[in-house]
Write a structure and sequence with these properties.
Elements: E1 8-11, H1 24-27, H2 31-40, E2 45-46, H3 56-69, E3 72-73, E4 76-77, H4 94-114, E5 118-121, H5 132-152, E6 156-160, H6 175-185, E7 190-195, H7 196-202, H8 206-213, E8 217-221, H9 238-247, E9 253-256, H10 264-282
Parallel strand pairs: 1-9, 2-3, 4-5, 5-6, 6-7, 7-8, 8-9
Length: 284
């Protein structure tokens, strides 16, 4: 049977809060019920920013349920989840390196419980006492060190650039900077997360940036602009962009990391229809 969607779109189980999944009004906040609903709609993957904050037994039950349903775990956030993040990757002292590796080890254990392979990596806040270039060099060194450990575990760290309007005070805002970090680290376990919404706000020129970054991209996230809502709600030409992705033969995950324009069940149903329409258009 032909899949319902042309690409491997992955609904989220909560962006900032674990009790606010994409399809809250259809399946409630429980992640197991969400997984059942998502699989029933024909999606083949999910992502969960808050996975590491869920109890271990919940993670294990999620892993078992995804295996039963035949769906993949997409990315989850490992670094920068603190309420007041401190400079981490930008420093090169042993104490901070130990802190980073402790976070990574916890993330690798979480990934093993759910069969996950992608860990969202944000380099955190800058250090005002150190010039940017030195901070960036330290970040590359720390990323290399983490990538070695991730590679041994069969996991890929995916570097995300976040636009300054949505997330001020983060070291890496531009996709160009993220590309430079990933390309410099030169590890198969460190690749790019191309978040379409963030790139549109911070960099623009989506198609050109996509082409320039292509060999380092391992994962996409989708959100329209303005408002970070579903494709078709804003200014981005998702048909043109994703048709290009599809024709390049991309088979990886595209996370649906966005809010919903409409209210209640009707709004969530409109999201599913939007992805059906998008799938039909990019296959033509």
């Amino acid at each position: 049977m032909k899949p319902r969607f042309a690409l491997n779109f992955a609904p989220h189980l909560g962006i900032l809060r674990p009790d606010r999944p994409l399809f809250l009004h259809h399946a409630g906040p429980d992640p197991i019920e969400q997984l059942k609903f998502i699989a029933g709609q024909g999606f083949r993957a999910v992502e969960d920013n808050n996975l590491m904050d869920r109890p271990r037994d919940v993670q294990e039950r999620m892993g078992a349920e995804m295996a039963r349903l035949g769906i993949q775990m997409g990315c989850f956030v490992a670094f920068g989840r603190e309420a007041r993040p401190a400079p981490t990757f930008v420093r090169n002292d042993p104490e901070m390196r130990a802190h980073i590796l402790a976070q990574l080890d916890a993330a690798l254990q979480t990934a093993a419980r759910v069969g996950g392979r992608w860990i969202t990596t944000v380099c955190g806040v800058p250090d005002p006492q150190l010039p940017w270039a030195y901070q960036f060099a330290n970040a590359i060194d720390n990323l290399k060190f983490c990538a070695e450990r991730a590679h041994r575990a069969g996991v890929i760290l995916i570097m995300e650039s976040t636009n300054r309007r949505a997330m001020p005070g983060i070291l890496i805002n531009s996709i160009k900077e993220a590309y430079l970090a990933v390309h410099s680290a030169a590890s198969p376990a460190l690749k790019l997360l191309f978040d379409v919404g963030h790139v549109q706000v911070e960099d623009g020129d989506l198609v050109k940036n996509l082409e320039r970054c292509w060999e380092e991209i391992a994962y996409f996230q989708l959100a329209d602009n303005p408002g970070r809502r579903e494709p078709g709600s804003g200014e981005i030409n998702f048909i043109n962009l994703l048709r290009r992705v599809h024709r390049k033969g991309y088979t990886g995950i595209l996370g649906m990391e966005h809010l919903v324009t409409g209210a209640g069940r009707a709004g969530e149903e409109a999201v599913i229809r939007a992805y059906e329409a998008l799938s039909a258009a990019i296959e033509t």
